[in-house]
């Protein structure tokens, strides 16, 4: 119903514009001034229609936010853009998930189920939060306080959402580049544009007074106009590249001002940051609005006027100057708004979960214990419980039995625990870990690296990351599967012994029973298994203590109806 009413208002808006055009044409052709007075009520109607329409659109968007609360938001995500803010701020972090670990744990998909953000800063900062696990429980608990407010208090989350909706998302906006990089613009044009914006109005008059020849004046005026147009054409592409970001920055500053006044006591620290940072950047808002307004005119006559007068260029340079002088404050505003939007998104994600818990952290460094832990991407996941105290585990089992999923379950939940203080388990206790993985390294034929070489690189980076500050939780699916069995087993034994001696808590899945037997005193042993019946192989995905004795490679070939000649020879050689 509201959408229909909004369409009616749009039609009224067009009608008012039409009537206004008719009145102006009548005045221009007949010179009847009385018609101009009719513009006054029309302008009032136009303003009222625009205001009511905007209010209704905001309310409809907020209603959509309410309807989708606690539900996954499926939309196209450009991860190249989403990671922009992280790429600029990662140098300030002691540790972050490297690309191998992020890929191994399918964190793009995990991000997508958590992401219900309303703004571009929110989307980018949520990515950064998941990419940079925290090692300070106090920071995580402070995050949780705000997330819990949005999770439980409808009024608080909707009041914040209303302001974030006004900021919105824009695909072609790159605020991080504007704030963290030097602006790719030759600032020497600034004084030139300043002077040339005045000269076309002064020089021709001086020439007319000096030479008393209107033809010389007109010729000079035309030359100066051409110079200004050429400068406009030269600079316009660069200005256009930044204009959308500058306009979006204006939305961000205006919304930040409103958010800083929200009556939510848990946001006190954020409101203080916003209030401190907003004071020196208020002038940006007006200038940013001007640049964006000029960019969006779309009228040939006004565009020609802007070309001649270089108004767009001068407003742009003026805005850039203020942005450069106050980048530190603008970065704080950007990150603060992004974090609040991210916390709102995490609260919605929590409401979508049937079961989750807050992690409990312990001073016992190589300790991990979780009950009924599941992978957050699986709708009908089978819960398992696991406990590791001072030593890792070796996981055996047949193909497709659930080993790789369990590895990712542990890795993903450890990341979620130390980033969004949320775990898909009934209980979770552990120390703080740097999570690193080697699950699916790939051949790289473009640079001539084999599968084994990529595996060796992946494990070496884990070894090199070990320092004295925090322990590593390393998750490996088959050590050196890309080489021959004898070297694989021997190398694996030595590497896992090295991990144990150097306080690296390792969770390793393997098909090599010799490896499990050799290290059974130093690692806990667990396995997954399948059942065979008339329908084929059935997996229960339950974790069991010990070493898996069964194999299913030949069974799988039988189920797929491989020729008996092949199956018989395999059975004879096994």
UniProtKB/TrEMBL annotation:
SUPFAM superfamilies: DNA repair protein MutS, domain III, P-loop containing nucleoside triphosphate hydrolases. The chain crosses the membrane at residues 12-29, 35-52, 191-211, 217-235. InterPro entries: DNA_mismatch_repair_MutS_C, DNA_mismatch_repair_MutS_sf, MutS, P-loop_NTPase. GO terms for cellular component: cytosol. Pfam families: MutS_V. One of its GO terms (biological process) is mismatch repair. GO terms for molecular function: ATP binding; ATP-dependent DNA damage sensor activity; mismatched DNA binding. Residues 390-572 form the DNA mismatch repair proteins mutS family domain. PANTHER family: DNA MISMATCH REPAIR PROTEIN, DNA MISMATCH REPAIR PROTEIN MUTS FAMILY MEMBER. Keywords: ATP-binding, DNA-binding, Membrane, Nucleotide-binding, Transmembrane, Transmembrane helix. This is Mismatch repair ATPase (MutS family). It comes from the Bacteria.
